[in-house]
Write a structure and sequence with these properties.
The protein contains 4 helices and 16 strands. By secondary structure, it is mainly beta. The strands form 5 sheets. Strands 3-2-6-11-12-5-4 form a 7-stranded antiparallel sheet, covered by helices on one side. The chain has a 3-stranded antiparallel sheet with strand order 1-15-16, with no helix packed on it. The chain has a two-stranded parallel sheet with strand order 7-8.
């Protein structure tokens, strides 16, 4: 009998959340008066130039994107976790929706002031980028879909238009150096950075 593999015991659980470790995004959208709303989100994935975002309904971000389907996907590094957390209890929606009031949200118009972050003009889209974020992706929203089985949020398909990166994380002109770049990770409502490199896939170009 092969005893090299020990039995892994599991239990069936019912967690309230499934934030199992994804990068934090600060999603910039344009308000009606041309000011910018910043929404921290942690549901996204990217393939090619397509970035899929999960955004809650009833908030300011989805309202803005339905009116003007363009945004900036800002990806902060671990050093910005406190700036991100300063945004967490605020919403740009006024009046504050009941469900957000129940979770302790309050209205904040100036998200840049609340977070201590700095706006910088985008190249093509109207919402500004966040200067301190090492990656800033200007994008256009191509599709908005509300899943039948989970009607509390929308699935947004965004197309990357321009990718901006801090110079100190760029290698070979158009690559991000994975040894210098670390996204801020949202792991079951706790903030983490990446650990040490374990290896790389055979398709890695750096």
């Amino acid at each position: 009998m092969d005893h090299s593999k020990q039995m892994m015991n599991t239990e069936t659980i019912q967690p309230k959340i499934l934030y199992y470790g994804t990068p934090v995004i600060l999603l910039n959208t344009l308000n009606e008066d041309d000011t910018v709303n910043i929404s921290p989100i942690s549901s996204s994935w990217a393939l090619g130039d397509c970035i899929v975002l999960g955004v809650g309904l009833g908030g300011k971000a989805i309202e803005n994107l339905e009116r003007l389907p363009e945004c900036v996907i800002n990806i902060p590094g671990p050093s910005l976790w406190e700036n991100v957390e300063q945004l967490a209890p605020y919403t740009g929606k006024n009046p504050v929706p009941d469900y957000k009031q129940q979770h302790g949200y309050s209205y904040q118009k100036d998200k840049y002031a609340a977070s201590g972050l700095t706006p910088v003009a985008s190249k093509t889209v109207k919402p500004s980028r966040i200067m301190e974020c090492p990656l800033q992706i200007e994008a256009s929203i191509q599709n908005i879909r509300i899943p039948d089985h989970s009607p509390a949020f929308a699935i947004l398909e965004a197309q990357a238009v321009h990718v901006h990166a801090h110079q100190d994380i760029i290698i070979d002109d158009n690559h991000i150096d994975p040894l210098k770049w670390s996204p801020l990770i949202y792991n079951f409502r706790h903030y983490f950075g990446l650990g040490h490199q374990l290896g790389k896939t055979y398709r890695a170009e750096t």
